[in-house]
Amino acid sequence: MHFNKISDTLTFSPQIRPEDMAAIKKAGFKAIICNRPDGETEDQTPFAQIKSAATAEGLVAYHIPVIPQQISDGDVAEFAAALSQGPHPMLAYCRTGTRAAMLWAFQAASTQSQSDILGATRAAGYDLTAVAGRIADGGRSPTPTTG
User: Are 103 and 75 spatial neighbours (Cβ–Cβ below 8 Å)?
Assistant: First the structure.
């Protein structure tokens, strides 16, 4: 497992497996957040199995599945709520960790500067310059224009 720490309360990771839960708990995590929809790839473990293994280890498990180009303001709010309500530290994961980093960046955009967010995610191993505009816009989804 590869952990990419963004803060004392949150770390990102690529896909985890049920057999990783003991190591995740031993690393000090209290909760996990899955940001992958089930069935994204054939080799992906369904969230129900991940949650069962997490619960068996005493970890809280959240499922906030997102598609990278379709992250809604509601998804960001749900991620922010999990961060504020759940036990810490938390491990948020997806296929590579990038979606988790994007959700964190979008929710952090209301209180942190774009440069601080991009610097923190870059230090954690994620280049989010492709979504810098949304971060600069407070993390909100672009408003569709009518023609």
Answer: yes
Global pTM exceeds 0.90: yes
CATH value at residue 79: 3.90.190.10
Residue 146 clears pLDDT 80, i.e. is over it: no
**Pairwise CA distance, residues 50 & 32, whole Å:** 9
List of E strands, 47-146: 60-63, 90-93
Structural domains of the chain, count: 1
Which tokens sit at 67?
A: 């598609």
- Residue 72 is part of which domain span? 4-136
In a domain, 64, yes or no: yes
Q: How remote is the C-alpha of 68 from its chain's centroid?
A: 11
